[in-house]
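Feature request, filed as a ticket because there's no other form

It would be nice if the structure record came with a short human-readable summary line next to the tokens. Right now we just get the raw output. Example of a typical job, pasted below so the devs can see what we mean:
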Amino acid sequence: MHGRLKVKTTEEQAEAKRLEREKKLCHYVTATKAIFEKRKLEQLDKEALELTSQILGANPDFATLWNFRREIFLHLEKETPEEMQALYKAELSFLESCLRINPKSYGTWHHRCWVMEHIPEPDWARELELCNKFLESDERNFHCWDYRRIVVQQSQVPPQDELAFSDNLITRNFSNYSSWHYRSRLLPQLYPDPHQQGRITEEVLLKELELVQNAFFTDPNDQSAWFYHRWLLGRADPEPTIRCLYVNREDASLAVAFSHPVAVAPASHDLIVFGDESPLVVRWRTPDGRNKPSLMWLCDLPSTALNDHWPQHTFRVLWEEGQSQKECVLFKGHKDCWSQDSVTEEQVFRCELSVEKSTVLQSELESCKELQALEPENKWCLLTIILLMRALDPLVYERETLSYFETLKAADPMRSAYLDDLRSKFLIENSLFKMEYAESRVVDLSQRGLTILCHLEHLLVVTHMNLSDNLLRCLPPSLAMMRCLEVLEADENRIETLEGLPPLPRLEELSLCNNRIRRPSDLRALASFPKLAHLNLQGNPLCQIPGVQSELATLLPNVATILT
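Raw output as currently delivered:
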């Protein structure tokens, strides 16, 4: 204990303690052996309960013994209900003593839950009092919080009462992550937003923003309130829906892009294709060939689905599970067609803000900037500033956001890789906004310092992409979702291999100058690219290998031009 002088022990005292420990250990080992012997012989009796009590009373985290006790109780259930009630009440009392030894014992809380499910006459009101008592001593005991949610459900405590309980704990101590998290579960029940499932009404949201702002101004270095604030700024997770439908006449193929990864069986009846209102028999596959839950699914159209003499064909895809559908028209003389959601109109990356909410968020942004001036290295404040600017207007605040990312990386170097990936994600989202405004099939992501590629399902119809002068270490398998890509520039990156990259069906030109490709075998994936004609590898280490040109020509016989 702090402030107390350390009392030196004599050799006799040390020897006495050693003997006492040995005695306890001997008893512990002997009792444990006896317990396992009784379990082996299936002696499920009260003596076994007593033996396990001796061990669990000293070590409540011995999970096997809790399992054994449950076996014993199930065996004893042939007793009368009154006798079982008494046995289970004694067990609850014993469990309470174990929780005083270790209030965060997984096994003890789990066993208490099991006992309450089996006791003939459960007293849930007493259990609620017990939870309150343990949360009084440690309001952040998440084991107790988990158990309390079960108790509340069983005793049918109104959500309003639980919200008041959360208010009380937060008022006493803002540093209570469990209580903040509990609010995020209660508020959508009490004040559901009719337009966004799992979110809360704007009136309540604005009050919560004020409450949480008081919390992080009181203790800026505590992460609990910052995490809750991030939940408040978040959006509802909408149901999966079809984002884009693309049809290509040349190879008679169809692609469907979803908002979330979905599972589709090859001959699925959940995802149905109609050609001129007649259902078509197709087999579904993913771009990477793995056929696991994916953002995109492909199929080949039957030969009868396309007729060059008809003025037009209408294709419709119906996804019954998500009650979503999309339609596009392929006109005579056109090689492809598509129907794609607007990332702006559908609020894919951000919510539309009311005047009142925008005003509150703007005020919060200014307050956080003031706090950051006082706490310049507070990483939670810096990250919240970035998220507030994203919520207000990602394009207007783009340059300022990038500046704050640099400040945040300096303040939190241990998470620099995560921050680089988050920065890359935001920049790609901004590029999608700009590309949509320009109505272009060309996307320029060069010189952005990108470390990852994401949201590629939104680039299904892009034909040209420039990824030059970034920090990419690989081209991800998800690149195969870019079914229309014809030209890809990825110069001046850190790419070492193309291993695992699925075929890009329309890619004709690929430039990989000044990367880190060392062996021709690192390019083996390109052999399956059906239309690749031009490949530029200048400035890569493999260019120094004698005879590399002929080796590449053998590896990639269909590529007409290979520059080394």
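Something like this underneath would help us a lot:
The mean pLDDT is 91.
Residues 69 and 213 are 48 Å apart (CA to CA).
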